[in-house]
Each structure stands twice: as structure tokens, then as C-alpha cells.
Amino acid sequence: MSRSVLLIEDNEQNRYLVTFLLERSGFTVRAFADGAGGIEDARTRIPALILLDIQLPTMDGYAVARALRKHDALRGTPILAVTSYAMPGDRERALEAGCTSYIEKPINPETFVDEVERALSGSTQVSP
Ligand code: MN
């Protein structure tokens, strides 16, 4: 199974942390700071999983998720929304936009990779 992850995140520190945690676990990571770059990359490379920040400049994560889902080759690709929003409504909004699941910021380095693995294996189990 491919372990290529596409990360769309505008915060440099978060990009660094997520990339570090995933590469340490054998994933390859391509990271973009905005939706346009990430969408273009997803269309051409078809990652195994997409980690999508919701608060992004210009085009927010909801719009990015909808754009990603318009491409047939990306219909089945897990998209994990990564957001500091803790409101249940925001989670619903991410799922409505096409995200598969949801990870809250700040990222917990102890559980983050497990959550990614779970999404990649197609499990719908949600961590407590
Ligand atoms: Mn952000």
C-alpha cells in the first residue's frame, strides 16, 4: 500500500511537525501551504491520504475538500480535516465538504500517526 501523504497546511510549524511524525513512521510527505498548490499536486500524483488544514488563506479547507472530490481519481482518497475548531458544527461542515474524518489541533504526537494509519486502513473507528 502506498504511504504517500499530501499535507495542505499554511502554518510552517505544523507542516514541520506533521512531516516529521509521518516520515519517522515511513510515510512520504508532500506539503503545500495553500489549497491551489495542494489540489494541483493531488490531481497529478494521487496521494494515499490527504491531511487538510481548514483554516487556510484564500481558499479554506472546506472549499479545498470540495474541489478535491470533483476529481474522479480522488473520490476514494481519505481526506482528514485538521483544524483547531472544536465545535461539532465545524466537524459536520468538514464531513459535508467531503472530508472522511477529522483531527483536532493541537496535534497530539502520541496518537497522530495512529489516527492517520486508521484512516488509511479505511477504519471508521473514531478515537475518544
Ligand atoms: Mn491554518
Write the layout of secondary structure elements.
Blueprint lengths: L3 E5 L3 H13 L3 E5 L2 H11 L3 E5 L7 H9 L9 E5 L4 H9 L4 E4 L7 H9 L8
Parallel strand pairs: 1-2, 1-3, 3-4, 4-5
Helix pairs in contact: 2-3
The structure holds manganese (II) ion.
Bound molecules: manganese (II) ion
Number of helices: 5
Helices and strands, in order, run as: EHEHEHEHEH
Q: Radius of gyration, rounded?
A: 13 Å
Largest sheet: 5 strands, parallel
CATH superfamily, by name, is: Response regulator
Q: How many distinct folded domains?
A: 1
Mean pLDDT: 91
CATH architecture: 3-Layer(aba) Sandwich
- Could you name the CATH class? Alpha Beta
CATH-derived topology: Rossmann fold
Q: Name the helicity range.
A: 25-40%
- What portion of the residues fall into strands of 2 or more residues? 15-25%
Any low-confidence stretches, pLDDT <50, length ≥5? 124-128
Distance, first to last CA: 27 Å
Largest beta sheet: what is the strand line-up?
A: 2-1-3-4-5
Anisotropy-based shape: globular
Compute the number of strand runs.
5
Structural class: alpha/beta
What does this entry look like structurally?
- This protein is α/β, with parallel strands linked by helices.
- The chain has a single domain (4-121), classed as Rossmann fold (3-Layer(aba) Sandwich), CATH 3.40.50.2300.
- 40% of the residues lie in helices and 19% in strands.
- It has 5 helices and 5 strands.
- The protein has helices at 12-24, 35-45, 61-69, 88-96, 112-120, and strands at residues 4-8, 28-32, 49-53, 79-83, 101-104.
- It has a 5-stranded parallel sheet, with helices on both faces.
- The N and C termini lie far apart (27 Å).
- The site of manganese (II) ion (MN) has 5 residues, from loops.
